[in-house]
Amino acid sequence: MHGSHAPGRRPELRIVAVLVTGLLLWLLSAPLGAQQPRTGGTLTFIVSAEPPSFDAHREVTFALIHPARPHYNLLVKFDPLNYPKVVPDLAESWTISPDGTTYTFKIRRGVRFHDGSVLTSRDIKASYDKIIFPKGDVISVRQGAYTMVAAVEAPDPTTVVFRLKWKSPSFLQDVASPWNWIYKADIIEKDPHWYERNIMGTGPFKFVEYVRGSHWVGVRNEDYWVKGRPYLDGYRAVFIGNAAAQVNAIKSGQALVEFRGFSPPQRDDVVRTLGSGATVQESGWLCNNTVVFNSRHRPFDDARFRKALSLAIDRWGGSTALSQIAFVGPVGGLLRPEGPFATPPAELEKLAGYGRDIAAARAEAKKLLAEAGVPEGFEFNLLNRNVEMPYRYVAVFLIDQWRQIGLKVNHVVKETGPYLADERAGNFDAAVDFNCDFYDDPDLQLVKFLSVELPNGSVNGLNYGGYIDRTLDRLYDEQSRTEDATRRITVVRQYEKRLLDEKVWQIYVLWWKRIIPHSTKLHGYKVGPSHYLEDLQDVWISE
Amino acid sequence: MPRVYRRQRIWLARFVRRYPLGAAAGIAILGLTALAGLANQLAPYDPLANDFGTMFAAPDARHWFGTDAFGRDVLSRVLYGARTALLVGFAASLVGATIGGIVGVAAAYFGGTTDLIIQRLADIMISFPIIILALAIVAILGSGTFNLIAAIALSFVPRIELVVRASALSVRETTYVEAARAIGARHWRIVFRHMVPNVTAPYLVMLTAFLGQAILLEASLSFLGLGVNEPTPAWGLMLSGAAVEFVQRAPWMAVFPGLAITFTVLAFNVLGDSLRDALDPRLRT
Amino acid sequence: MARYLTHRLLLMIPTLLVVAVIIFVLVRVIPGDIVELRLVSGGSFVTASVIEAERARLGLNKPIWRQFVDWMSGLPRFDLGTSMWTAAPIAKEIALRFQLSLQLAIMSTLIAVTLALPLGIAAAVRRGTWVDHVVQILSVAGLATPSFWLGILLLLFLLSNFHWLPPLTFTPLWVNPKANLLQLIWPALAVGYRYSAVTTRMTRSAMLEVLQEDYVRTAWAKGLAQRVIVIRHALRNAMLPVVTVIGLEFAFLIGGLVVTEQVFNLNGIGKLFVDAIARRDYTMIQGLLLLVATVYIVVNFLIELLYVWLDPRVSYG
Asked: I need a labelling partner for A102 at 20 to 30 A (CA). Which of A265, A491, B149, C176 fits?
């Protein structure tokens, strides 16, 4: 622009450069329809389930996040537009000690709770103490994720320090957990159960009302600490469980969006009706369906049989077909395809059941069945939960796949309660299972597959297969402590090969795909790989 | 031809003449039963086979009723579904009516405290809508075809019991039952010789009346995900979930099983009405 | 008469007590555990001690008899306990939904009665004519069509023809009558059709029976206008079974619309029941079953009162 002078050398040139670039960008983007965020309007969105209590520290359902998260802030959060980057929320900055065991967060000044009181580091400490060190009859479901924390300290009103017992490479992401809402210390001290039935945070929206079974209303927090936010005057979350009714609500324009994810037919239906009035955003999803084999039952104790079951599944063909009718699709191993730890396709195809030649795989499967002494027409039960999407679709697909190697599968569908009870009690042959989480870290994604009894004597209650595999346990610890990222991935791959190809204790069917069809009136929203990460701070609607 | 059969033939001829609609419904049900029985011969495709090459195919020469989300032939599934519907319908109403009938006769015959206790229990069970009762029983037993039959049958029992008891009560005081008692006949002999024949009419009427109800209940429970399980072909199941979600894209998925249900229940109801009029016009179902 | 009614009223108490006992036992037999459902169903890891702590908090670790005593001791004070799922009082949770269910039941009844009485009477009076046949076909079809199915078709019709659907959330009638009626009229129609089918059939058969009785034939012979005979004599007597059917159907609608409420996304008693079962919310299931049974028993009592009023021949000494 100005000869060979780099703009950075002279301040005035730098300003000119920024202005010119900004102008150019504005000229380029303006005609394309990028609008200025509009302030005002009420966003109506659908929530497909209902929260039990209002306390995120003790609940596990997105049905609480979607209507109630906008009332709160976190210490740090995942960038809603750029997952998995962690950005400031109530903490404006942070430092990590060189040995990785001390995290110091600087807390923003002037943040006020909805009752007008000022937020200090004491509130952060009280909230985290409730999560990590719950007292008495207080329930904290994610306590186990913070075993590395020795203490949380609040040395002055704007500083919070986390002291760790050991170095944990993913601790910052742990703190960005969308469940760790910051509550008011005085209230928690007076009654640690208060937040189960009441709402009082620092978030962009204040609580107005919740009519059970019907709707939840939030209104703009005029004193919100981010200037100019939120854009919306308020929001109305409407609870609709029935899938057809959800689509109808969006088609009729009564609701603009549902933030968990629609199925492909729901999407197509919305698009067909709204036409150019609909925008569809899609993303990989940090959720998947697996099948657990009960290694206590014959012949599921035989790795050859389990491997044959995995080989019989045409994952690539199933992905193409099922992704038209259910919100599943991506073929992947232990870690999310497209995610930072994903196994590249070339490597993935070497695993049992991931090859492109399904005829060859099924021939091998039949050979393995014969070796394991499993006769043609062998019958077993597949336990499933009575949730339509996507469990029913996955099961129908699996039953048909296994039929093609001569196995007869009885579909045992149970309500979620008895389904969980049966899984836990080992009362099944094979069970359709699922995992869902808010970030890709292997620590979180692999923990479920550890031995049912760990070397240190503790019990892995999520290992429904009932197996003991010390190699898996060893590899898990190794990857968890490996600092070098490349080396860590190598260990994770070994873990994956051991689990999915050699021992086949459990198998992955397909990963889920998140599909959000919404009205074009909705702006400032970008779909991410987790439905737990939604907040409405930057969302606006046009009219 | 033995005389007994001739008597029944005459009755049948009179029934057909007096209740042509009922007779037509009877024939329709026979036809349906034949279709269900011959489903494996008639169905053009395997009702379970997924075919991802022909998902959501509209009705045409290859698939008369189109295909569903898994590329399964809807006609084949409707035909096989008739088996499930008739199985659930007949089994549930037969079991329900039989248990209800036995309990009703027992209550009427023994009277006294037995009767009182049975009546109180029946009154209480009746105070819950059938669907609520069935829902609760399914919650206890779990879903699946067999449990579904049990749940529906059990929820019918008190309703049938009340009607049968009322009919049995009217015979109880008749002179010939008293006479039989006086000469010291055994309980079961009195019950079977004198009371059972008299409650046959209400028994049959209730049986037919509840057949249609059972099929409707199956549809409702399957709609809630508490009925027959995939991939078993069943009309109620075919109506639930995907069929509703895809109703604009592939209406045939929902239309044909829906019609099958309506048609079948209609036939059973019409036959039930005619049977009631012919056998026991005082009964109201 | 008064003594009889008092007796009947008092008799309701032991009946309800037995109902309560049965319900309590029934609910405990349902497999599945609310604590697991609530803490584990999200797929996250929860330690056994957390699960135990939650069980203790909900009172599930107390002996069964203790839980029963706790529940029963609240009943005389109309205290049904608190929901294990939401921790809100059961009575409050139910009251929230009862309004909608009650209004829907009343609207459906109005639709059903308006359709059923004229149709049933016309069919009986013109027995064997085309009027009779059309009415019979309509009512038999009404019994054979699943009402939730009808509801789905109705919504599809509204959406494809008017690009409009009923409001998503419930507004009480006195707050905004228009929004209220626009939401509830559709399910009322879907349900009312089946309801009217039942009532029409009963009206027709009851009328037929009465029309054959001697006194009606006599009135006929006396040459009074046909309408007067039918209305004054026959209808009054035929009303007894019809009223019974209307009453029982009405009782059914409070809580029985488990599927229709799903289709129309109505926040009613039926939906609450399905949710409570799915969540294994024991206290809520108990409360709802007790409510449904009470409604039925009360309605039965009211029917008896109506009998007395409608039929002077019925006397209770």
From this structure: A491
Write the pLDDT tens digit of every residue in A74-91: 999 999 888 889 999 999
Of C15, C29, C273, the CB nearest to B132: C273
Contact assignment for B131 to C15 by CB distance below 8 Å = no
The reply to whether residue C15 touches residue B142, judged by beta carbons under 8 angstroms, is no
- Domain hosting B213: range is 23-283
Q: Which helix (H) or strand (E) holds A78?
A: strand A76-78
Homologous superfamily (CATH) for A70-189: Dipeptide-binding Protein; Domain 1 (3.90.76.10)
The tens digit of pLDDT for each residue in A306-342 reads: 999 999 999 999 999 899 889 999 999 999 998 889 9
The answer as to whether B132 is a domain residue is yes
Nearest to B254 by CA among B210, B229, B222, B227: B222
| Residues in chain C within 8 Å Cβ distance of A441 | none
Q: Give the other-Cβ count within 10 Å of A35's Cβ.
A: 10
ipTM score assigned to the predicted complex: 0.82
For residue A58, give every residue at least 6 positions away whose Cβ sits within 8 Å of its Cβ, in sequence order, or none: A138, A139, A140, A141, A196
H or E element that contains B18: helix B3-18
Distances (CA, A) of C74 to A201, C22, C68: 35, 17, 10
**Subunit contact B55:A415, Cβ cutoff 8 A:** no
Whether domain A284-513 has CATH 3.10.105.10: the reply is yes
The overall pTM is greater than 0.80 = yes
DSSP state of B184: T
Q: How far apart are the first and last CA of chain B?
A: 36
In chain A the first and final C-alpha atoms are separated, in Å, by 40
Residue A122 φ/ψ, nearest 5 degrees = -60, -40
**Mutating which of C15, C21, C140 best tests the B interface, going by the most B Cβ atoms within 10 A?**
C140
Contact B78, B97 (CB under 8 A): no
- For residues A64 and A51, give the distance between their C-alpha atoms in angstroms, rounded to a whole number: 5
